[in-house]
Amino acid sequence: MSYPDNPQWQQPYPQQQPPQVRHTNALAIIAFVMVFFFWPLAIVFGHIARGQIKRRNEDGKGWATAALVLGYLCLIVSIAVVAVLVFVATTVTNDQQNSTTTTVSTTVSTSSTDTPTETTEPTPTSTP
User: Fold this and answer.
1) Which single residue of 15, 49, 94, 113 has CA 20 to 30 Å from 24?
2) What is the mean pLDDT of residues 106-125?
3) How do the domains of the chain map onto residue ranges?
4) Which residues is 24 bridged to in the sheet?
5) 8: helix, coil or strand?
6) Cα–Cα distance between 93 and 84 in angstroms, integer?
């Protein structure tokens, strides 16, 4: 007979795995940092990082999302700035063309008045 205290007959304790540590995706952090230096790369790296996070079950989704949001905001602001600059440049060019036309016509009219011509009209004579 065996005794329950006998170590040979005891069930071994199941080996416990240490808790699985999830690592933060490095590309997500790089994407967030790139927002402040070169935002187009932040958009590209953010999309790549989101894919890697999904496939590898990593942390860093918040970093990648923040990089994408800020990157797209920078894109919108850049488009707005370019649109305003084009509008201002077009307006200034049109104003300059209008003032050039006015100057030319003023010059032409000034040169024609430099040599005045006198016209004499016959005076009506009355017969008594």
Assistant:
1) 15
2) 56
3) 26-98
4) 59
5) coil
6) 14
